[in-house]
Description:
Elements: E1 7-10, H1 17-40, E2 45-47, H2 63-70, E3 79-83, H3 90-96, E4 103-108, H4 115-129, E5 134-138, H5 144-156, E6 166-168, H6 176-192, E7 194-199, H7 213-216, E8 221-226, H8 228-237, H9 240-252, E9 256-257, H10 269-289, E10 293-296, H11 310-316, H12 347-363, E11 369-380, E12 383-389, E13 407-408, E14 430-440, E15 443-453, H13 458-467, E16 474-479, H14 484-490, E17 495-501, H15 507-520, E18 524-528
Amino acid sequence: MQSTEAVLLLASGDLRLAANRQCWPEQRRVEAKVRRAFEVLGATVRRAHPMQASKGHGFIDSQHYGIQVFRSIPADAPLVLVFTAWQYSHHVLAGLTTHRGPILTVANWSGTWPGLVGMLNMNGCLTKAGIQYSTLWSDDFSDVKFTAGLKSWLDIGSVTYDLRHVVPFRPKKVPGAAAAAGTACAHALRRDKAIMGVFDEGCMGMFNAIIPDHLLNTTGVFKERLSQSALYYEAQRVTRQEADACLAWLRQRGMRFVLGPNEQVHLTEQQLRLQCKMYIAAVRIADRFGCDCVGIQYQQGLKDLLPASDLAEGLLNNTDRPPVYEEGTRRELYPGVALPHFNEVDECAGLDALVTHRLWQMLQYPPETTLHDIRWGSPFGEEFVWVFEISGAAPPAHFVGGYAGATSERQPPMYFRLGGGTLKGVSRPGHVIWSRIFVEDDTLKADIGHARVVALPPEETQRRWQLTTPQWPIMHAVTSGVSRDQMMARHKSNHIQVAYVPDERAVALAMGAKATAFSALGIETFVCGEHLGL
């Protein structure tokens, strides 16, 4: 690009005013650092949209506003999108679809201010939309790697990454037992079909989380489009006695609830009761429509009517969960099995969860699975340990101590005005297979790899919780053969799917079986990190 050409800076933000106001001071601080980094290299940066004094922040906070901003941006101008917090990608995606100039996404390396999560979602959305972009991340925006990447982008309009850890899956390399299991799982799904219950699509601007029907249906999975208003109505029909029985069941299992008297800032019995009603309602609706997995949007719509959905989501993902009966009868619904739930209606995670749940049952592995945010990470000892964290939807089977090791704390008021408890715990040490299904070039693709879940000292766990969101469940993960920067450069989402295998000896078989299942479903599959001969 021309050295005299100004780089235009954009800040995509949340839809929720409280979140934008709270995150704005950090956004402004980071933007100043990014601007200085450009200036050191002789480039000029100016904001493409003003700070809005009437709102108390300078984020693009709606798709409508984003389209207005892009009307004054030259189509060939170089753009840098700076992320310090969660953002709704569709606020700027409309303008980016027709932009011809080079695009750079930049995030702060911070758990407290989760720009990493927002940027990874944007990267996944850009990938699905077929928009070319480069991406960078940094602790302070002055390190050698960041500066070199920024210089490359300024010089040639792109940044290159080390992606040697990614190889196309080779089905012929899979051992017989694994190949047979994966193939059988895929063929059964395509033959018998399955229904994905979707309680309203497009949660929080996650364009990348919507699988087009023509791609999803080729796997044998079809959407049942459900409404959150129906979930709310059904929750109102659940009796107090049914909700109290659900809550009593959890307490009998040893789960603890951190309660307080002020519903504005504390978790209360009434919030918990409503969450249990939502859980029962979701199972009843799923049964009514024959759903094999479900996803609840919550963040928009339900957030103004009911407490958080996360406690219900975590229970749905667990095999051992409070029994739910058909209304007016004693017919138990989905007895003895989990009803896989995909947080925030991430359909890519939903398809992954459905395949994983069924395949793990065939392999006689613990079938519980969940998505997490790739929230942040830092070195501990000689290893880089990721913080995988989600807003409360992880199953207790993943925790040290199960239900007895789980607590429920009120969701942060900034995002959850009506409160509601989480399902919080520390993921137990062991081995997990991680994966991500994504859309690129109008094709379903998937990355798959192995990670060790490690035990950290209690004080280190607390440190990481305090730097992120202490109310949420946490997984300490070391990705095998995939460095921090390789994961960031390749991953096409803020979400990552995880499922435990019994021990290290089962890793190769599980990876081979899952990669085979994905491939047999027509998903272009890549093995990341330690390839295990695949």
